[in-house]
Amino acid sequence: MAIDKSIPKATAKRLSLYYRIFKRFYANNIEKASSKQIADAMGIDSATVRRDFSYFGELGRRGFGYDVSKLMNFFADILNDHATTNVLLVGCGNIGRALLHYRFHDRNKMQIALAFDKDDNELVGTKTSDGIPIYGISTITEHIQKTDIKTAILTVPSTQVQEVADLLVAAGIKGILSFAPVRLNLPKSVIVQYVDLTSELQTLLYFMNQTD
User: Fold this and answer.
1) Quick one: pLDDT band at residue 84, thresholds 50, 70, 90?
2) Residue 206 is assigned to a structural domain of this protein
3) Where is the CoA-binding domain (predicted)?
4) Which residue has the higher pLDDT, 99 or 2?
5) Is residue 204 domain-resident?
6) Which of 40, 67, 72, 198 could form a disulfide with 22 if both were Cys (CB 3.0 to 4.6 A apart)?
7) Which of 2-11, 94-103, 105-114 is the most confident on average?
8) Both 41 and 131 in a single domain?
């Protein structure tokens, strides 16, 4: 199920969180959940939950709550979590190695299937303990074209991230999650999300200082 482009970006960013909450409710044998229960679990207010859900039509009835099993499957459909999604990773430094060992598929149906690094990296030609092969970056186009992988995670230095991103897009990648604090210049058809750990930590420290 495709996400309506008219849905606000803030709402779209909460979709995976809603899915996680409903999976937790389901695991705890909760059959119905009110907007307040959902809001409390999310750390937001009930009005935001109702407004978010209003973009998808009638997901529940006032006074009856939301059917947990139905909503869990609804968000699984939206997020395409009924089938396994393979992604590739470029950059096997500290963050990259941590991601290689992170068990995405224990929580959602996504997994890192291939990894790449500089051709002279000692890890090239080996596999992780989970069997993920690590290849030299000079072979990246060849390997992408042999698969149906359309999503990549970038954990390469800022000085190299644009060059690597261009290579990925030319090979057919349509979505990139980048850990480099650099805005990429790519075609509008390519979706890019950024993870800036330094900025997030600085924001945390700022709010901590405001409470002192």
Assistant:
1) confident
2) no
3) 80-183
4) 99
5) no
6) 72
7) 94-103
8) no
Query: What tokens were used for 85?
Result: 């999604």
Q: Are 49 and 103 members of one domain? A: no
Q: Is residue 9 over pLDDT 90?
A: no
- State the CATH number of the domain containing residue 60: 1.10.10.10
Residues 118 and 46 in one domain: no
**pLDDT for residue 97:** 92
For residue 26, the Cα-to-chain-centroid distance in whole angstroms is 22
Residues 194 and 156 in one domain: yes
Annotated binding site: 91-96
pLDDT for position 125: 93
Q: Is residue 1 part of a domain?
A: no
Q: Could you give the C-alpha distances from 72 to 28, 63, 170, in angstroms and in order?
A: 13, 19, 36
Q: What is the mean pLDDT of the chain?
A: 88
The Cα–Cα gap between 192 and 99 comes to 18
Q: How far apart are CA 167 and CA 59, in angstroms?
A: 42
Q: How would DSSP label each residue in 174-202?
A: -EEEE-SSS-----TTSEEEE--HHHHHH
Cβ(85)–Cβ(79) below 8 Å: no
β-partners of residue 116 are: 90, 135
Known binding-site positions for NAD(+): 91-96
Alpha-carbon span 182 to 40, nearest angstrom = 35
